[in-house]
Amino acid sequence: MQQTRQQPLFSIGQLVATPGALAALAKAGQTPLEFLARHIRGDWGELTEEDRRENQLSLERGFRLLSSYRTNAGDAKLWVITEADRSVTTILLPEEY
């Protein structure tokens, strides 16, 4: 089971979102902050166990962090990526990567 925390685990820097991600969120009636709150507390969403371990290493060593979620509409997957230097966090669709 994935353990999450109440306090943020890292700084997000500047928050940006792509047009595709914003459209998917609007369609689902959700906001970027809903997914960001999960991301910064270590709820990585729909990742493999290997990717979860990679995120743990990234927290400890200061590498890039990735989360993957589905919107309420169910037809869109969103990625939330925080860069290694914690200067920016981007919400995007995988095909926009």
Helical coverage, percent range: 25-40%
Total number of domains: 1
| Cα-based radius of gyration, to the nearest Å | 13 Å
Quaternary status? single chain
Distance between the termini: 28 Å
What is the succession of H and E elements? EHHHEEE
Rounded mean pLDDT score: 95
Q: Indicate the low-confidence ranges by residue numbers.
A: none
Question: Largest beta sheet: what is the strand line-up?
Answer: 1-4-3-2
Number of helices: 3
Major sheet characteristics: 4 strands, mixed
> What structural category do the secondary elements indicate?
alpha+beta
**Which of globular, elongated, flat, extended, rod-shaped describes the shape?**
globular
Determine the strand fraction and express it as a percent band: 15-25%
Query: How many E-type strands?
Result: 4
